[in-house]
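U., I forgot to send this yesterday:
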Amino acid sequence: MPATCGALLQEWDETGRVRGAMEGKIAQNRNTNQTLTYFGGLFPPLLLGTEGNAAEKQRLLDIQARRDELIRAGRQLGCPALR
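Result:
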């Protein structure tokens, strides 16, 4: 685990960027899935194109767990930006 407030903050920022990108991908796939599901009633083969994003959702859970660890470490070090 990083030992300085600067290192913790840097990892915090990086995990935030990754989280934002993954949330965007999931949202985009959600919109695509909704469209495919709507038209899938008329053309069932379209339903094969939907994505569940299980791996991305698990990665988001892992990122959030790491961010929780960073907050705890920041509190222990007295980092004002991670309280």
